[in-house]
Every structure is written in structure tokens, then in C-alpha cells.
Amino acid sequence: MEIERINENTVKFYISYYDLEDRGFEREEIWYNRERSEQLFWQMMDEVNYKEDFTVEGPLWIQVQAMDKGLEFVVTKAQVSKDGENIELPTEDGETVDVPVDKKIENMLEDKYGKSHDQSEELEEDNLSIIVRFHDFEDVIQLSHYFAAFTGSAQDSLYHYDESYYLYMEFSHELLDDDVQEDFISQVLEFADDTDVTIHLLDEYGKKIFETDTFAQVRSYFPVEV
Prior knowledge:
- The strands form three sheets. A five-stranded antiparallel beta sheet has the order 11-8-10-9-12. A four-stranded antiparallel beta sheet has the order 1-2-4-3. A three-stranded antiparallel beta sheet has the order 5-6-7, with no helix packed on it.
- It has 226 residues and is of the alpha+beta class.
- It is built from eight helices and twelve strands.
- Helix 5 (137-146) packs across helix 8.
- 34% of the residues lie in helices and 30% in strands.
- It has helices at residues 17-22, 27-32, 34-52, 105-113, 137-146, 178-188, 199-205, 214-221; strands at 2-5, 10-16, 60-66, 70-77, 79-80, 86-90, 96-100, 128-134, 154-161, 164-171, 193-194, 207-210.
């Protein structure tokens, strides 16, 4: 799950359908089973609170945007005015916007963050991306030779962060279909572990070793010994 802290009162996070199913949920039940959808939401909020110290107090404004490869959530903490007739929604400049309690959340968040997708609209084509963690650089070397015939149908970068190596990969849905992507990911996970570390954290705090063509560059520095 990728988490982005917008400000003190707002957080945005994204969960892929791959991650969602890995947690034991199905796509359909998120839309049609309220109990399961709430269970997933609060599970993710626990993770957001743990990583971003985003404590839930009072009412929340929630926007859910369905994308081709997953779901994006925007959650903003708000409070009810003293007269009980308005919701006070914090803005980026520290001020508040009063919204009637009967105004739909979707309308408010459209004003603030832009119009969300309606289920009848065409879903946005969003590439699938993953980040995996290697305990030892030797595993990176082995993986690079395992995929010696890799043709570059994905964008990839290698980082070093917190005494571990992280590989970011983003797959092009135009070049690889879903089955090929999932098969590729399962093979990568034979050498590495799935992780909740986000690309934003790696870009800000990690050291980028290779910006692109990771497998080819690793093989050039560590060729197969004959």
C-alpha cells in the first residue's frame, strides 16, 4: 500500500487489487459487502496511523476513486461546528471551510481535489507497480541473471535504504497483460520479499543505485563466472 501525507489533516493512500486480494479480500465484495469494505478500510487506516501518526478523531471526509489496477483513498479529518449545522473542513493554509452537514462528501471533495470517477465512467488506465525488498545484494545479482532475457517491458529502479536493497518496478499494461505481470511478480518474489515501503519514501530517504535497466546494469558489473 502506498501512503502520501498531504498535510496535517489529510492523507492519500493507494492499494492495488493485487495487494487487496493478498490481504484476503475480493474486488466485488468491496463494492457490495459493506461489512467487508469497512473491515478493509479500517485495516488500512490502522496502517496509515502506524506509519504516518494519523490519529482518527471525529468525523472523516472520505473519497474513494476506482482505478484500473486498484483503489485510491483521500481521507480528511474534520469536525462538526458548535451549532451542529456545518462540518468544518481544514484547508492547506490553516483556515477552515464550513460545509452543511447534508452536503454529500463527494461534492465537497470534488471542489477540493477534483471530480472523482463515477462507476459508469471509463476507469483510468493505471500501470501496476510493486516494490520488493532484498536482504542481501547477492539476491539482486541472482535475480538479474535469472531475467537475463528481460526485454524492458517495465520501468525499474534499485535503491538502498535502511541496510536493505529495494527494487521498484512499474509494468506497462500496453506491453504486458495481467497474467504475464502476475507471473513475473511471482518469480521476482522467489528472490525478494513484498514490502509496504513506498516509492515516495525511497525517493526522499533512500540512495538510488540504478535509475533504470537495473537487471542489465547489475549483470554488467557482476557477470557470470565461467
